[in-house]
Amino acid sequence: MRRPPSTVILIRAERFIPNPATAADNSFQRDVPEGQSDDATLAKALSEMDAVAQALRDAGVTVHVFEDEDHTRPDSVFPNNWLSTHAGGNIAVYPMYASNRRHERRADVLELLKSRYRVQTIVDYSGLEPDGIFLEGTGAMVLDHVSRVAYAARSHRADTHVLERFCTDFGYEPMAFDAVDSEGVPVYHTNVIACIGTDVAMIALEMIPDEQRRAEVRERLSVTGRTVVELTEQQIREFAGNAVELCGRTPEGRRRYLMAMSGRARRSLRPDQVAVIEESCEIVAVDIPTIELAGGSVRCMIAGVHLDRRPATEPEPTAAVEAIDENPHTADGQDVAMAGAAD
Which CATH number fits domain 7-326: 3.40.50.1370, 3.75.10.10, 3.90.600.10, 3.40.250.10? Predict the structure, then answer.
């Protein structure tokens, strides 16, 4: 049985605004309240980022925090769109739809992972961007680490051809489907409508219009005995689907499973849904209303580390980089220094 990650990466962005380049297809995105200054927005967002990091630490999760002082990266608080890590020492770097998000990829993040964890291979798909082919990480995909299935709602941010390539490279079974809201607008990221944990999954099955595909998704999610909590579209609008299962520690050192989500998401859940979730996970909820203006919530903020920690005395080999379409780099922003990673 594969456990959820006990270590995460967060980006503390010193420039935060809802990204104008993503507003057209992200129906969850909202404008900053009228009359609120950029400085006030930033102060609120930084406070929310710090609150998420502290809540996770308090729950026994290891948190690596990277500062981002670059004012041209409004969405850098959402690193799960460009990076994912996988058991066996593998990392994926993804092609991003919005051009102003592509330099969120950071060499210092990858270097931390290589220095502290066993990394064998970095597979870089970002060379597909010039061809207009995108797969925005664990935003575009929701990965079932138990059954090895990659669920993806089709969109121009989740190309099925690169989805299949990822699944071949990383050992997942692809399961693509269409998902739309009540007005027929496609879901921009799968992780706003679905969260898959070890023993419980939350998903808005009603947003999958094809009844047969809906039944197939439900059956595939529950085949291991996992309980499926069906969310409504209204709950999705409150970011109830944008949650993530993590592994923390009690003060006594005992392992415990957590379900991290926003306070808004938690308040949208019915008591019976909360009861089902809490049979296997402790809910950790943090209010992040400013960050949610950008169209993402707690899950989008978290890049989980599924890598084995490297012993302190072990030499640090250089990870291999597999470049797709002759793209020679793994990350932009080499001039952005890591201000510190907190364990």
Answer: 3.75.10.10
211 Cβ contact list (under 8 Å, min separation 6): none
Rounded Cα–Cα distance for residues 103 and 18 (Å): 17
Give the list of residues 6+ apart from residue 36 with CB closer than 8 angstroms, or none.
none
Measure the CA dihedral 173/261/241/201, to 10°. 50
| Neighbouring C-alpha atoms within 13 Å toward the C-beta of 300 | 27
Q: Is the pLDDT of residue 111 over 80?
A: yes
What's the rounded Cα separation, in Å, for the pair 172 and 141? Answer: 11
CA-CA distances (angstroms) from residue 175 to 54, 143, 181, 209? 35, 10, 19, 15
Q: Which residues contact 330 (CB under 8 A, 6 or more apart)?
A: 93, 105, 107, 110, 122, 124, 321, 323
Distance CA 56, CA 273 (A): 22
| Neighbour order of strands in the sheet with 173-177 | 141-144, 149-153, 173-177
pLDDT digits (tens, 9 = 90+) for 242-277: 999 999 999 998 999 999 999 999 999 999 999 999
**Alpha carbons 308 and 114: distance in angstroms, whole number:** 11
Q: What pTM was computed for the model? A: 0.89
Tell me whether strands 244-249 and 173-177 are parallel, antiparallel or unpaired. unpaired
**Distance separating alpha carbons of residues 240 and 234, to the nearest angstrom:** 9
Sole residue written with tokens 């923390």: 248
CB 177 within 8 A of CB 160: no
Any idea how long the chain is? 343
Helix, strand, or coil (residue 150) = strand
- Give the full edge-to-edge strand order of the sheet including 255-262: 244-249, 255-262, 282-286
Q: Which of 187, 195, 192, 341 is nearest to 260 (CA)?
A: 195
